[in-house]
Records
---
Amino acid sequence: MMLENIARRAFGLGGGGAAMNDLVSETAPRFSRPRIGLALGGGAARGWAHIGVLDVLTEAGYAPEVIAGTSIGAVVGGCYAAGKMEPLREFALGLTKRRVVGLMDFHLGGAGLISGGRLKRLLERDLAGLQISELKQTYAAVATELGTGHEIWLTRGSLVDALRASYALPGVFDPVKLGGRWLMDGALVNPVPVTVARALGADVVLCVNLNSDMTGRGTVIQSYGADADPEPAHEQRPAVGWFGGMRERMRGIVGKANNDQPGLAGVMVDAFNITQDRISRSRLAGDPPDVMIGPKLGRVGLFDFHRADEAIALGRQAAERALDEIGAIVAANHLPLN
């Protein structure tokens, strides 16, 4: 009160009122909200959770201005920045097991089991011709260069090509050649690209780690031996024709060939997922986000693309749990205007 009276006398404001309020509003420091960045991690079918996270952040007024994505995170983040979330949501919710298999254009003689042509055509349906420079948010998709292992930040050029390069899972999808470099899945080098979001100018970085719920992974079993396994019961399969035989061979690629032996694609993807989990832990420890959103996706398999409704709901729940922490971080990082 004493300071207020001094100000009144100094500026001849008499009793204060509206004039005093104007003075206070003019002299009080002004602040701007920090630039929010969002790092969307890789995780195959679990990535549909990113849709739920983005829904909640947008509804709560924390829409990101910077988006960095790896693999499925690049796809969801790219569609968000392009204003194409609703077509992506409709596509994801319309997937069934049969439709997922129908999108897998298997081929021989390539660098992967799947050429990726069908998925490319789906992306081009809504994103054809769109350049990264035209997006609403600052955006980068992370890829890995074959041979050198360079971490490549795709920040210009065709959005569709950037997405394809970022999700080109080694051994499953053919690598993508861009600008003279053969590129593959960015999760090999940066599964949750917090560093990218910071480098692109974000003041506050949120991240979505799709593997945070993988409890029991990466422990050390200190005493283990090759004890004899019980003899498996041999299942008698009925005779099948050509189509049935092909179905059995496909089961050996994408599922379990026989008994409990995993299929080829299952082995490659799980090995990749273990590597990704270890790299994520290391990189997040070295450059932690301001807030990590961790959907509880342990029961959603890497190939469960048909369970989008469940993954989206789990993403929403995780983001809602983090809103108080996000609000506190954003408030603490408001920046003074010059």
---
Amino acid sequence: MKNKTYLFTSESVSEGHPDKVCDRISDMVVDTYLSKEPLSRVACETLTTTNKVVLAGETRGPDISKEELTTKVRECIKDIGYEQKGFHWKNSDVDIFLHSQSADIAMGVDSSGNKDEGAGDQGIMFGYACNETEVLMPAPIYYSHKILELMALDRKSGKADKLEPDSKSQVTMKYEDGKPTKVTSVVISTQHSPDVNQSQVKEIVRPYLERSIPKPLLAELKDEEFYVNPTGQFIIGGPDGDSGLTGRKIIVDTYGGAAPHGGGAFSGKDPTKVDRSAAYAARYVAKNIVASKIADKCLIQLAYAIGVSKPLSIYIDLYDGDDEKSKYVENLIRENFDLSPRGIREMLNLNKPIYERTAAYGHFGRKAGSDGSFSWEKTDKSHIFKK
């Protein structure tokens, strides 16, 4: 954003949103294969609609029966919380159409002889970080995620038993001198039980807004700018209310529109696919740069060609007009980070079943786990840039 004073909005969707149900199921398939063979290849798309789930795609790895995958699909739906007439974990039909990976693709990306493993596809990937929040994420998307995550936790525990799984949030913030200073409007749309009306739903969700966003940022928010289910009741939801597809929430998954997106979705893809792994690597590098405090924000673009191991280009923007510093930082990236597909997987330890939990509430701004999950959120390389 070139303007110093402006409004900026980001949205999030819950794990019960039809598209996120699909992302969850697709990432479950990735994890299932990686848990049995860390070098498995998976590209799985999911579609959901009224009491119907369809999986399609390509795999290479262990033999996994349709029965096992069907059971795991039902476990995903049950964990999300769907036990509704139009979409129920027990009753939904599950169709699986997974077949072997194309031999042409395998030949192009596999390592052989003196040829290192190549990228699984051509494309561009972006990484971004900024100092607006403690996790170095843009504030509007971070707070949008937080609202829905807290609602889901209480819904699943029974504390918010009038809420149902499908929900969306949207936070608009005012920026002054390029920094977020206050929330000017919030939208929360949530599926709910027929036992409560619109005004009751507003009071049910209000505490989640107040718990998610620091009080100073909410101080000037007017009640008429806090919209809850603005079209009225929201009883029919999830895949029964709207069909879902894997990969349709790529802006929700990343930076809420605060940074460019290369266009490739993450969910359903194993870590040899640079759509996923290189986007994680770009975030990792950008976050370590901002964590070093040499820049308030950082954007990185990587570009790849199918079958080629090295990135075709590395672009960096520190938003401070200092070209010399940008060139210096770019050299540090080239010297200290192996951004080949294999190098990224080894650097971030990505050949693990760690992806199902990424499917909702964003792939970035999360806490790195002891099991290797969200390894791209570590700031263990920030010392490189402090020099």
---
Amino acid sequence: MPLLSIQKVTKKFPREDGKPTVALRDVYLDIEEKEFICIVGSSGCGKTTLLRIIAGLETITEGTILLNGVPVSGTDTDRGMVFQEYSLFPWKSVIDNIAFGLEMRGIPKAERREMAEKYLEIIHLEQFRDSFPHELSGGMRQRVAIARALANQPKVLLMDEPFGALDAQTRNMMQRELLEIWKETQKTIIFVTHSVDEAVFLADKIVILTPRPGKIEEVIPITLPRLRDRTAPEFAEVRKYILQKMEESAQTR
């Protein structure tokens, strides 16, 4: 049984004229435990909508999502979400931001502090434990956001363009750090990105969505060894193939 199974998922948004906008149609996808999945596609194809449905932030019009065989309904700590905006509390320190979800769950103070310290160490920001978000760089703030999501020990980590607001050098650094975090925590990651280069660098599998209404065009296994060399001919070949598939998909819509 896959860890996460997306079965015939369709999402329609109502409109005033009575003709709903179909964002996703008949999406099927199985995701195994510990996989790193990247979802790509043109703007408006439903990537973020699909991620929000998995997170329980959007309802499904038709279909089912199963996590360990159990239908997903609403938000829960078994699915952690990291947004492009860091969404940190500016009045809380780094350690208190990481511990926030644990506090909301009623975890005793000593236990949640111990867990927060563990994930602070994973993101290598121990020396900034008492700093506030405005004292951190963009990359550091996003690392805190990732640690906060991981502290709740979700089965699946959902990431919506988490590095999109960062400069190119910081973005590349964060991609490498995320792979280290993934390797250490063994979490299943579903990562939405507009960057094919980023997807090829990170993913075990790349899911291409068609232009709206989004449905799966192809699921492409990426077998290149990590850490991947962006300048290698094999890397360029995979990137070229995915870009071609996306362009062909757009032309046939």
